[in-house]
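Retro notes (design track)

What went well: tokenization of the new backbones is finally stable.
What didn't: we kept losing track of which sequence belonged to which structure.
Fix going forward: every design gets posted as structure first, then sequence, in one message. First example under the new rule, 139 residues:
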């Protein structure tokens, strides 16, 4: 159970615009979850058009801002890296030719195109809070 009366400084949702994060955002807007200050959407710049349409819908519906961050266009970055590295950033699926065993190659896209841009935005928020605290102290 979530304590709705807890003290807090900043509450942020990492909004992927999928079922789970959208439900959290909508529940917070309705008051079923603690108040949210904002949401952050990490844009790979290669999402499907329905995702962008839904994000626009959420922005109009939610009472808090949704900030969009991005590392760049994941598709263009992958194509530009072709032939220059053996490291693949996307979650490509594989199948072993002899045994037929299926798997996924190691991926780095979630970290590079989602987690790191969101962390950078969070660091900006923290610096704003610290700056605000010091301005109040020095008044």
């Amino acid at each position: 159970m979530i304590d709705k009366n807890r003290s807090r400084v900043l509450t942020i949702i990492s909004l992927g615009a999928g079922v789970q994060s959208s439900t959290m955002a909508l529940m917070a807007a309705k008051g079923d979850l603690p108040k949210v200050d904002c949401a952050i959407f990490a844009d790979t710049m290669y999402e499907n058009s329905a995702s962008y349409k839904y994000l626009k819908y959420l922005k109009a519906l939610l009472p808090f801002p949704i900030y969009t961050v991005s590392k760049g266009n994941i598709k263009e970055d992958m194509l530009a890296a072709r032939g220059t590295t053996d490291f693949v950033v996307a979650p490509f699926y594989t199948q072993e030719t002899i045994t037929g065993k299926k798997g996924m190659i190691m991926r780095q896209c979630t970290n590079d195109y989602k987690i790191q841009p969101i962390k950078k935005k969070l660091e900006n928020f923290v610096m704003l809070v610290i700056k605000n605290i010091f301005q109040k102290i020095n008044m």
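Added context from the reviewer: The radius of gyration is 19 Å.
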